[in-house]
Amino acid sequence: MILLPLELLSTDIYTKYVFLCKLFLKNRLKKCNQDILDYVEEFQDFSKMVLSRLSGLNSYKTEVKDEVENLLTRVERAQRDIDYFGSVRDSKMCVEVDEDLVKQQLLEEAEEKRNLKSCCDHLLASVKSLKMVKKTGDKHGSWMKDPGKKHTKIYLLNGTVNNVIFEFPNIMTFMESNHTLKARRVILPFPWEGTGHIIYQGFLFYHRHGSLNEIIKFNIQKRNIVDRMLLPGAGRIPAYQLSPSKKIDLAIDEQGLWAIHAEPEIGGNLVITKINHITMSVEHTWDTTCSSKDAEAAFMACNILYVVYNFPSGGTSRIQCAYDVLGTVNTYEIPVLHFPKRQGSHSTIHYDPKEKQLLAWSDGSQIIYKLQNQQKA
Predict the structure, then answer these.
(1) Is residue 129 within 8 Å of residue 340, measured between CB atoms?
(2) In what order do the strands lie in the sheet containing 281-291?
(3) Which residues contact 266 (CB under 8 A, 6 or more apart)?
(4) Among 38, 190, 288, 317, which is most exposed with the fewest C-beta within 10 angstroms?
(5) Where is 57: in which H helix or E strand?
(6) Contacts 24+ apart (CB under 8 A), 105-112
(7) Domain check: are 173 and 259 in the same one?
(8) What are the Olfactomedin-like domain coordinates in residue numbering (predicted)?
(9) Are residues 230 and 349 in the same domain?
C-alpha cells in the first residue's frame, strides 16, 4: 500500500484513504490473530502428543518393573528348588555310616509318617452349623484362639489397620457385655494390614501395614518382635477380590503355618506357601488352580486349601475350590459346600485344628462354624 502526503489529498480522497488504511490494518490484525490461534492449536496438539508419550513411558516403566520383580521371584523359587535337588543328590552319595543309626532314623521316619497320617486323615464334608458368639467391633476384623497352646484364651483384633490386641482369659469373658474392660491389651510396635493375621504357640504372625510383603513374628507375652520375613511375590494384588484390604492371609492347620496370596502372573490365582514358624523361612510354594475372583476368604485344613466364594453384594458363602498340596485327594471330586443359610459376607475365616471348627468374622459378628469331616479315600 502506497502512503501519500496528506496535503496532496482532497477531502473525499482523504476519507477513502483512511478507510482503506483501517481496512488494511483490520485484515492484518485478523490474519495475525488467526496465526496465533493456529499456533496455539498446534502447541496443544504437540503437548498432548508429549504427554501421551510420557504416559506410555511410565506404563512401560511399570511393566518392566513388574517383569523384573516377577523374574526375581521365579529366580528365588528356582534357587530353592536347586538347593533342594542338590541336597537330594548329596544325600544319595555313598558314605560309610553306622547301620544301627540308619535303622533308628528309618524307624523315626516311619513313626513320623504314621503320626502325620493319623492327624491328617480327613477332608471336609460339610459346614454343619453356626453359632453366633458375639457382635462387636468394626465390619472387618478377626478373632481366634491359639491352637498351639493348651489355654482357652480368646484374641480379638479389630479393623483392617490397627495395633491393639485384646486378650480374654476365656470365651465366657469375651461374651460379656463389658468384655473390653476385662481384656488384656497388647500394643504392637507396628500396625497390621488386612485381617489375615494368626496366633500360634504364643506368637502373633501378621502383615505389617505399609510394607509390600513383610510378615512379623511378635511374642504376645514378652511384647516384642522376635523375627520377620519377606514373602516372595505377595502383596501386589488382594488375596481375595471381595476382601481388598487383605494382601496376605496367614493360616494354621495340623501341619503349622501357611501363607495365602494371589499373583497376577498366574491370572490372579492363589499361591500357597508353607512357612517354618520357628525359622521364619519358606519351605515350599504351590501355584494353585483356585481363582481369587469373587473369593472372600480361605483356610487350610489337613494340607488342603479351601476357598470361600460369595457375591459382591453379599449372599450365601460357599466353598467351590479346593487344592491338596500333597496330591493325595482329587479335589475336583469335592462337591460345592454351602455355609449355613445366612446372608452376608466374611472378612476372615480361621480354621482351629484343635477343635476342628471355623472361627469367622462376618459384618462385625463373631461366628463359630461346626464342621463335618470324612475319611480320606
Answers:
(1) yes
(2) 249-253, 256-262, 269-276, 281-291
(3) 287
(4) 38
(5) helix 11-91
(6) none
(7) yes
(8) 118-375
(9) yes
Residue with cell 481384656: 183
Q: What is the rounded average pLDDT for all residues in the chain?
A: 84
Average the pLDDT over 74-84 and give the result: 59
Which pLDDT value is given to residue 7? 57
Give the CA-trace dihedral at 34, 40, 41, 45, to 10 degrees. 160
- Grid coordinates representing 194 are 488386612
User: How is residue 235 annotated by DSSP?
Assistant: S
Cα 288 from Cα 132, distance rounded (Å): 32
The conformation of residue 242, written as its DSSP 8-state character, comes to T
Cell of 193: 494390614
Do 123 and 374 contact (CB within 8 A), yes or no? yes
Per the domain annotation, does 362 fall within a domain? yes
- pLDDT per residue over 52-69, tens digit each? 787 777 766 777 776 666
Instruction: Name the residue type at position 282.
Output: V
Contact 208, 192 (CB under 8 A): yes
Q: Does position 80 have pLDDT exceeding 80, yes or no? A: no
How far is the C-alpha of 243 from the C-alpha of 360, rounded, in Å? 14
Q: Is 350 exposed, middle or buried (0-12, 13-18, 19+ CB in 10 A)?
A: buried
Q: Which of 88, 106, 139 is the last residue of a domain?
A: 88
Q: Are residues 283 and 236 in the same domain?
A: yes
Terminal Cα-to-Cα distance of the chain (whole angstroms): 106
Amino acid of residue 336 = V
Q: In angstroms, rounded to a whole number, what is the distance separating the alpha carbons of residues 96 and 196? A: 48
What CATH number is attached to the domain comprising 338?
2.120.10
Report the alpha-carbon distance of residue 317 to residue 133 in Å, rounded: 19
Residue written as grid cell 485327594: 329
Other beta carbons less than 10 A from residue 364's beta carbon: 16
Per-residue pLDDT of 261-272, as tens digits, reads 999 999 999 999
Is residue 197 within 8 Å of 213, Cβ to Cβ?
A: no
* Whether residues 195 and 323 fall in one domain: yes
Total number of domains in the chain: 2
Residue with cell 497390621: 192
In a domain, 109, yes or no: no
What tens digit of pLDDT does each residue of 130-171 get?
A: 899 999 888 999 999 999 888 899 999 999 999 999 999 999
